[in-house]
Design goal:
mainly alpha, about 270 residues, 10 helices
């Protein structure tokens, strides 16, 4: 590694050597120019590699400083994102609990959600009023609050992932599937870890019961359409038949209240 002191000594030696040659060995004026050119060439040889070295050293230091600034920026973004994450999670929890009067805290949410006495009525009754009442109760006090919670977790996760530059994250997934897939990463992070048990079991249950959840939604919609039936086929019934057709194509069970229309759906 070149040292500045050594370079200066070599430069001084070169200059003194050139002067000594000119003093002790008098020459013609043309020869003086040659000696000076030779001395300048030696100095160039000494200092040019050194200048390249110092430039590369400065570039390396600038790169290291840039990387340090970038790391600091990412850490600042991470901290800011976590502050926002906390607010999003707390808001989602608050909204979910507001819809579940029988739940005093988020800790009992999964147990509350999985108690589903309404399902048997919804899937097997053909009375639109009975089906509508049971379905609305389950959707409003259980399924929608659960969706609010897992969607809040997904929104908070997306905010965190984008702020920290995480790649290969599929944001197009529905909330419960997203939480199931990325939960193992999220539960290690501040604020997310507080939802580990509840959100993990809840999201897995929601994914597992997706066919039944779709059936309940279809039953509720069918009950509403039949209650509003005014004789003859209307737009809502046409849309309902299309939904039933897609429901059957997905391999989901058709609720009893919709089986008469399922024949029309083919």
């Amino acid at each position: 590694m070149p040292q500045t002191r050594l370079l200066i000594l070599l430069s001084v030696f070169t200059v003194l050597l050139a002067i000594g040659i000119l003093v002790w060995f008098p020459t013609e004026s043309s020869a003086i120019g040659s000696v000076m050119e030779a001395a300048a060439g030696v100095l160039a040889v000494i200092w040019f590699p050194a200048s390249l070295f110092y430039q590369s050293q400065q570039l390396r230091e600038q790169r290291e400083q840039f990387q340090e600034n970038f790391r600091q920026l990412r850490e600042d973004n991470r901290r800011s994102a976590l502050v926002a994450v906390r607010d999003v999670l707390l808001r989602a929890e608050e909204r979910a609990l507001q819809r579940t009067p029988d739940c005093q805290s988020i800790d009992g949410f999964t147990v509350y959600y999985t108690k589903i006495p309404e399902w048997d009525i919804i899937e097997h009754s053909t009375d639109p009023n009975v089906v509508c009442e049971a379905a609305m109760k389950w959707l409003n006090t259980k399924d929608i609050p659960a969706i609010i919670l897992v969607r809040g977790i997904k929104n908070a996760a997306e905010m965190y992932y984008r702020a920290t530059g995480s790649k290969d994250v599929d944001y197009s997934m529905d909330a419960e599937s997203f939480v199931v897939k990325y939960g193992s990463e999220l539960w290690k992070l501040p604020y997310f870890e507080e939802y580990t048990g509840v959100a993990d079991s809840l999201a897995n249950f929601m994914v597992f019961m997706k066919p039944h959840r779709a059936t309940i939604s279809l039953a509720a919609y069918t009950a509403v359409v039949k209650n509003c039936h005014n004789g003859g086929m209307n737009i809502a019934e046409e849309d309902l038949i299309e939904r039933i057709r897609a429901h059957k194509k997905a391999g989901y069970p058709v609720p009893a209240i919709a089986k008469d229309l399922a024949e029309e759906a083919g």
